Automatic annotation (TrEMBL):
Its main location: secreted. Belongs to the plant dirigent protein family. It comes from Fagus sylvatica (Beechnut). This is Dirigent protein. Homodimer. Dirigent proteins impart stereoselectivity on the phenoxy radical-coupling reaction, yielding optically active lignans from two molecules of coniferyl alcohol in the biosynthesis of lignans, flavonolignans, and alkaloids and thus plays a central role in plant secondary metabolism. Keywords: Apoplast, Secreted.
Length: 178
């Protein structure tokens, strides 16, 4: 008889513990906007500029058709002017040949160093076009940890700068910000 009482008591306590955990768990009652510094969706609009150098012997960012590999190191600014505030760097390695279209080497790194954002993004360039190019954001570090999304690179009228529109999504966040 005593083993039956112990068994029923143990099962009752286990069921009570599961119910209490479900009702009192902070995760189930957490507000969606608990962390206002990192929204679930983040839209950024930036520009890739030539570095500020005195001589004009730097190559433009557009890839030549006879190029075997295209390596670049450019400044990332807030505005389209070359004198806009620098917010980071854009570095990349692209092989603009059809055979390497799905290569792991075609990566663009956007690194940020501002008071709002500190970290980097990895953008995978599966297809490189001369006009608007939509690329995939594969992840990031710092403020952009685990980010996924889309990066649209578009040539601007004022060469040699490119307009970069980023639409980033962070994991485990269900609230959408327009």
């Amino acid at each position: 008889m005593i083993p039956k009482v112990i068994f029923c008591t143990t099962v009752s306590l286990a069921i009570l513990a599961v119910i209490l955990l479900a009702l009192l768990s902070p995760i189930s009652h957490r507000k969606q906007s608990k962390n206002p510094t990192r929204p679930p969706w983040l839209a950024l609009s930036l520009y890739i500029q030539q570095p500020h150098v005195a001589s004009s012997n730097t190559q433009p960012m557009a890839a030549r058709t006879d190029a075997e590999a295209f390596i670049f190191h450019r400044m990332l600014t807030e505005g389209p002017e070359n004198t806009s505030r620098v917010v980071g760097k854009a570095q990349g390695f692209i092989v603009p040949i059809e055979e390497f279209a799905h290569s792991a080497f075609n990566i663009i790194y956007l690194s940020f160093d501002t008071s709002e954002y500190s970290g980097s993004l990895s953008v995978e360039a599966k297809h490189v076009a001369h006009k608007d190019t939509e690329l995939t954001v594969m992840g990031g570090t710092g403020s952009f940890a685990f980010a996924r999304g889309v990066a649209v690179f578009a040539e601007t009228d004022s060469q040699p700068s490119y307009h970069v529109k980023l639409q980033l999504r962070f994991p485990n966040r269900s609230q959408i910000i327009p």
